[in-house]
Model the fold of this input.
Amino acid sequence: MLYEINEKVIRLEKEGKKIIKFNLGDPDQQTPTEIINAAFEAMKKGKTKYASAAGEKELREVLAEIHGVPADNIVVTPGSKWAIFAVMYLLLEKGDNVIIPSPHWTAYDLAAKSLGAEVRLLKTSLETEWKVNPENLERLIDGKTKLIILNNPNNPTSKVMDEKVVSKIVETANRKGVKILSDEVYADISFIKTKSLLEYGGEHIIIKSFSKTFAMTGWRIGYAIADKQIADKIIKLNQITLTNVPVFIQDAALKALEYRQKIIQMIREDYWKRAEMACKMLSDTKLKFTKPEAPFYLFPKLEGLDSERFAFDLLDKGVAVAPGTSFGDYKEHFRIALTAPDDEVEVGLKIIAEAFR
Ligand code: PMP
Done:
């Protein structure tokens, strides 16, 4: 459905219509100039060759220091999406199953299914503040469960997981010998502290990205933090597929880390302001939603809403959103990505608010 909406957006734009795009999680901010310059300088220095499939030593070492792990446990990948797919490719066999709390980013279940794995969704709801029930999660585990995927903070709810809940899930996973893949691509810019799975113990896999934290979606750079055995397997998979993330992009990422605190603060502040504005503008409508605890999304609900029809109707008013069905069994919800310039965010939210008065 996301794809069909996007196709219609493209068609309408070709016809000259202005569309406010709240349908994709792609930040409107330009990548900071320091990062762009670092890539250019690296290219001029000849950093345009084949390189290590693990990632550049210097970048891995800086990341290792940030996360307090050995550099051998870090593998640089072209976006976190590849890291997620690589982990699934290495851990899952046909007939295995994966447990994913829902609503969820659809790439998880599409990737798992493409490898012949069964996806077991654990539904969470707005009414219980999107809390994952660890006992219900444990009930889904059987001898064929190879992976639990946690997305913290979550896309599309922007909810940070309760630390006690994560503790319980880690305890269960450790006891049952099941690995957890913790997708933490929104954690560095979250509005409230998001404790990394790294701090809970056990041999699990953490997925990070430069995309959201540094407005670098198109650069395609992320990384996995995993035990050496899995890290080495990802490196081998990189060797026979993509070879390496371009070194000039890794140099740019290194520069991003140098300015880390400043950029994170700036990005977080932008989205915090937009989230505040959205909550305020939608507060006197019929929509129900939880306050975002991280960028970029709101996932409001209206009882009885057919969000697919609503999304298409809204497009005719010049605003694109993603229907809730793109994230699981959530027909009454839709996702607003606050990834458009501030003035557009305000206009777009006004149009949405009008539709629900
Ligand atoms: N995880 C989540 C939860 C996402 O929303 C996205 C992008 N929308 C990704 C991973 C992938 O990000 P990237 O490949 O750009 O690092």
